Prior knowledge:
Blueprint: E1 2-9, E2 12-19, E3 29-33, H1 62-74, E4 79-83, H2 93-101, E5 108-113, H3 118-128, E6 132-136, H4 142-149, H5 154-167, E7 171-178, H6 187-191, H7 193-196, E8 200-205, H8 226-229, E9 234-235, E10 244-247, E11 255-258, E12 271-274, E13 279-281, E14 290-291, H9 297-309, H10 330-333
Parallel strand pairs: 3-4, 3-12, 4-5, 5-6, 6-7, 7-8, 8-11
Antiparallel strand pairs: 1-2, 9-10, 10-11, 12-13, 13-14
Helix pairs in contact: 1-2, 1-9, 2-3, 3-5
The structure holds S-adenosylmethionine and iron/sulfur cluster.
Amino acid sequence: MYAVQALSFPGLPIWKVLMKDQFGREITYLRLSVTDRCNLRCRYCMPEEGVCKLTHEDMLTEDEMIMAVETAASLGINKLRITGGEPLIKKNILSICERACAVPGITETAITTNGVLLPELAKPLRKAGIQRINFSLDTLDAEKYHRITRRGELKDALDGFYAALDAGFDKIKINAVLIGGFNDMEARQLAELTMQYPIDVRFIELMPMYDSGDFGEEAFISCDSVLEQLPEAVPQEADGGVAKLYRLPGALGNVGLISPVSSHFCGWCNRIRLTADGRIKPCLHSDDEFRIKGMNKEEMTETMKQAIYGKPQWHGEMSYTERTHTHRDMNQIGG
Length: 335
Ligand code: SAM
Ligand code: SF4
């Protein structure tokens, strides 16, 4: 279903196609996964041995990625997030970002990264047109960081964080997956980063995707439990994203709670995902996939329209202990 909307810019009427799904949601946001590989092995995300390596022929080429972004933009998508796996290990990441950010109609650009390679790449990414960074950091304890990532060094991540601060992005958000008995007791310390730096810190409920590592049932806790450690946090107006927002008095940024498990946000989900092997996933937790690898622009447009229109209404009940309905792990989808 299409709607053509007039956007009012001073003195210049601009017509824009908006594409709605079968439930009337406007789909305006694409998450593009540029690789399923990673330099870390977070226990809740991917197996220790890494991913079964797809051949070059299986993966989208850079030109196909750009064609997909152009197609998405022609269907009304204006927000783009580059993700993975770890997007910064992709050799041509700067070229992908530069070309994707320049696609007409794409007005908001972001990247999600573990940050380890940001010391070299933060400024070039900014220059390539990336406006915002989501930076994954679950703990400020070096031993725990090594344990949760199975190989990472906290110092490298923090160096990346400082490089991002230095590079002048419009917005930096730290994302911490909340794991009961592992980092829930660090919620206050993580949230207090917003007192020191002009950033948001968001807590995300652990989703039952990869085996969720060696965690037991106690690992799955509701995001709202963070508020017990932050009694002075003041609710803030939503910013159009999926997080419930709070602010510590005197802070420079917000604390966000993202609850995909305890309180889903499917009713206003506006996103689709494109995997590194060229499948459109209209819903993170569904196995519905639409292959666009190898297609020309016309075929890609038709397939993307079908994928958007057919987006499922919601992801169904998600329990803390049962794996969701997708066979892919997060690194193979793009978080
Ligand atoms: N490598 C990049 C990173 O870590 O930011 C981008 C890809 S990663 C798959 C994107 C996000 O997904 C990360 O913030 C990660 O913490 C989150 N994630 C992965 N597995 C998850 C799970 N089982 N539950 C909740 N979040 C998860
Ligand atoms: Fe890699 Fe990101 Fe998954 Fe961690 S969460 S293993 S950094 S893709």
